[in-house]
Fold each of these.
Amino acid sequence: MFRALRITVLLFILLIVAVNTWLSQARSTDWDNSLWVKVYPINADGSAASDSYIAGLEPDDFAPIESFIARETLRYGRSLDRPLRMELGRPINEQPPAVEPESGAIGVMLWSLKLRWWASSTAGEQDSVDPDVRIFVRYHGPDQSFLLDNSVGLQKGMVGIVNAYAGRRQQGSNNVIIAHEFLHTLGATDKYDRANGQPIEPDGLAEPDLQPLYPQQLAEIMGGRIALAENEAVVPKSLEYAVIGPLTASEIRLID
């Protein structure tokens, strides 16, 4: 009897979590109200350069992400005045949990649950009201070598982890990556080849009907890069050179 009661209570809790998750995801893409996205900076390499950069961050540094989403939602016929509201949180001193490359499906699932718990518990002390989306940006010194592709955005939990450079020259490209991972939390999928980072035709290209096809002038945000040739692509310097393509717009319910 007691065991059956425990199972019933657990199933009830899981049902509540599932319903709340579904409601949050549905609300995030109804485009009726502004989405509140909070950025939490993290010193990823422990360097003084990263500390200095983080100390100098201002909310306006992330305003181009607001402008990008506003521009693209308007282009798809949505008239919401401010679809995205970016906010800068206080620095986080704890690193997010890492996923092992060979962990398999079960390991990735457990990591996802651990990350969602970490995000809410770590940021919770400074959040009297929970934001719609939490983005943790791990800053590395400009002379450090790391993989930008290790950034991740989860729709379940509405949380993203971004690897970025602690340098003003890279601020624009940092915002491109933040916007990319933010759109993952709304349900957008990657549109580039994970083996080489090359945008996949046609949905990963901003201008799939361009003749000749290369070089492209813009990046489709989930393609991640401007395709200069069939085997060459670069991360755009800013969101001025990025667009949301039709498939991505459909995935985040900007269009039916």
Note: The first strand starts at residue 35 and ends at 43.
Amino acid sequence: MIVYNVTLNVDEIIKEEWLQWMKEIHLPEVMATGKFISYEMYKIQNHNVEDTSNNYSVQYKANSLADYEEYVNKFGTALKQKTLEKYGDKILAFRTILEKV
């Protein structure tokens, strides 16, 4: 199993709208590609109480690296572009691939 992890920092100004958009539009679009079997979304808790940043982790589970690569090659660029067009620099993201051991 492969986990495609997307860690995001979301600007406070768009946080609520972004969460709704993720749940109602983006996550269903990603799942509709058929390349992932499930996903989970987490709010990353800050250790420092003064840190008010809004960080999230979305973890998409795929059966294989081939499924993930097909997602990237066929769908990933367009879905990233939609997010960029909608939110611009109000969201910063980095992506990692995790393999279950």
Note: The chain has one domain: 2-99.
Amino acid sequence: MAALYTVIVADDEDELREAVCTMIPWEDYGFCLVGKASNGLDALQLVEKLEPDLLLTDIRMPFISGIELARQVREVRPATNIAFLSGYDDFEYAKQAIQYNILSYMLKPLTLEGLGAELRNIRQKIDAQFALFRQASPRMDEQDLRATMLMPLVLDNYPDPDGEAHAEAFARQCGLLRDPDDHPYYTVMVSTLLAEDGSNCTDSAFAASVNTLAAKYLRGVGFFASGKVISVLLGNPSDFEEYLHILADEIPQMASRVLNKRCRIGVSRAVHTLTALHEAYRQAMEALRQGDPAEGGVQFIRDLAPAVKGGNLLCKRALDTLDQHYMDADLSLVSLSGMLDVSPNHLSACIKKYAGETFINILIRKRMEAARDLLSSSPMKIQEVAQRCGYTDQHYFSYCFKKYCGESPNAMRRRLDLEKAGERA
């Protein structure tokens, strides 16, 4: 039998969640249940910890909705697929999350037979994804012409002053650029696969795998050359800011899960001309060469600046900045990386390596410690404490506080009052 896909179930309806977890013969449908959660926060933490192939979640849950959960899962584990289970016949609402690897949208009430049939469909879709990623040979289509046009621009240096005009004309002819008004930015990404001994084992078929994933997020063309896959990605600065770090995470996640191989990636800065692609390629190669060549991982050239190169120093700067901004309800790994002018990928890796835990867990701990201090030393209302610590929802705050501190904010206040009364007596 083929390997089982791992799945996490998240639903705030206890009876439904337990029924789905216990009554579905998961292995018969090709899955292995590895975790369950009653809210979006716990589900997100489980996804970070267990890295499942599938998250089956209610679309409307406490604290973090299914839509927001899907967005955050894409940030930390883009290789995880998501299926929505919902009692709301609201496809317009669900369409907000279609871009977040949503494989299925099922309406409650759903029979066990109906859910089983849908799990078979989901299994087939994931099978197809994995098969496409591990395909044995590149697709032969119009991308070949675009790759042929780009290869010399990327690999060779052209000082011709008229080169840009000629390059843009050819790019429009072969379909890389849409029309004379299409003037995107370009980023070069270089990807390699590593064998068990750390040697380069990249083959030409991996170019098709990278192209398949890249097409989910950005325009682009990739080709194989000299033992590496070189991708030229097109977009505007906001496209790169939103999607590039996600793509750069999904490729090694899929390489590990599907091919059982580590993957190293180097990413350049964005350039605005085709004739600057060679310099961008040099940057991507410089980034690729950083660190242990036998280890997988993603490196952006922007992360090699002297001010951020030291991982331990960067982690300290990140924790100091988090101390200053933890009360911001919108603080995220992406926004924190923007403050530090590094990629989210690099920041996440540094925090895990030098602090020993994830950004989400560190942020929650900081907020809970601050809340505990405020509750014990000030007369502020619970709602005020919650807002001061970055929570707009008091119930969400109380749930996190009890989970972290072992008692609710009100219970802690009562206990402290009794202790103070005992001391005075």
Note: Residues 237-259 form the longest helix (23 residues).
Amino acid sequence: MDAAQIKDFYQTYGDRIVDKRLNSPYPLRRHAHRMGYESIAKFVKPGETVLDAGCGEGVLAWYLAERGAKVTAMDISGPNVENAKAFLEKKGVLDRVTVLQGDAENLPFPDASFDWVVSSHVLEHLPDFDKGLSEIRRVTKKRAIVALPTCLNLAGASQLGGADFWRPSKRALLALPWGLLRILLNLGREGVQEGYAGVGELPHIWRYPWVMRRRLKKGGFRILRFEAATLVLPYFSFLLPLVKFLDRHKHLPILKNFGYGSIALLEKEEKTP
């Protein structure tokens, strides 16, 4: 698929994030996504201006507004924008959030418009990862937070093997070893391409953590903090107490590379003349 086709797809695609992730009936899935939102929102202080670039249905924007931030939430998807408005109104924070439709590769804002730009699982969907990252750098005054799918995690391996990590199934017996094999076979590359929404041609790479760090630094950022989004384990909800214990320590060097996704706290470096 070329860039125009990818963007055409996303302009009319609705993610159903609230139902499938935030309020999932599966405890492991619900925890994994809520932990990701909390891990981003914790860095933002009341009164700060934040752009949520690729806001989906507005869940992260809600977390940010609840912390007292002044939020602009933007997404390329028309259905997502309408659902975000409805969700944020239901949560009582729409007066603190501006919701609009726009392209993450061409942000409709002047340079240095926001105290923070947050990008949660968006850059991996873009036709041009580097262009999206450069736009984040352009419109933030100084700081940004980027979350991406990374693959050194058993739940991630299950996804890459073709099985849902949040519930046991017959497919899970083969999915985990197959996903781990794919991760091993792609060592030395960017990561493992999964596709998205059943469309294999759509870009959606689960990167290796060291690749993620390299790409962010190449984009003109200094990494202030790098941590696992969550250390969720696959299939069995009785593992959730262990997961919650591990997630309290997911920033430690021994654990930070093994997340079901990774989160980077960034500061933009000034360009040399």
Note: DSSP finds ten helices and nine strands in the chain.
